[in-house]
Write a structure and sequence with these properties.
Layout: H1 6-18, H2 21-27, H3 32-46, E1 51-54, E2 57-60, H4 62-82, E3 96-101, H5 103-120, E4 125-130, H6 135-141
Helix pairs in contact: 1-2, 1-3, 1-4, 2-3
């Protein structure tokens, strides 16, 4: 299959929904000329006009009507996937972390970290271990992981 650009598919979906290349471009925050270029690339890709200009706006061809439901659902899934990077919710987190740190960090940093976590992430637990000459190997092998 030839290359398809997600932006082109977004243009198709928005033109279908708005029946206007200009409104589709506006909703996608792009120049109208770029939306027209994307639509022309899709026309070449699918070998169909996709839309015809009428007095009522851009009317989808029978082929565009057939592919719209799947394309719209696919675009929606891709948008969710791209935006699905989970953010860390400290208040809801129930995790345990092991930190390798120096002696001075255990004295200075660790108490502040634990106090902060009590306020914002009460279910997060910290295990600290001193950094040693063996720490890099233990981290690399996974031995330093929380069990």
């Amino acid at each position: 299959m030839a290359k398809l650009d997600l932006e082109w598919l977004n243009v198709f979906v928005e033109v279908y929904r708005t029946q206007s290349v200009s409104r589709a471009a506006e909703r996608l925050d792009m120049a109208q000329a770029n939306a027209s270029i994307a639509l022309n690339k899709l026309r070449r890709h699918f070998g169909d006009r996709l839309f015809s200009r009428t007095s009522r706006g851009m009317e989808p061809t029978p082929y565009a009507q057939r592919i719209y439901p799947e394309l719209a659902a696919s675009v929606e899934r891709l948008v969710k996937l791209f935006g699905a990077r989970a953010s860390f919710d400290a208040a809801a987190a129930r995790r345990q972390f092991r930190i390798c740190m120096t002696d001075i960090s255990e004295i200075v940093v660790l108490p502040m970290l634990v106090n902060h976590l009590r306020r914002v992430a009460s279910a997060v637990l910290i295990e600290a271990e001193r950094i040693s000459s063996d720490s890099a190997r233990r981290l690399e092998s996974g031995e330093a992981r929380v069990r």
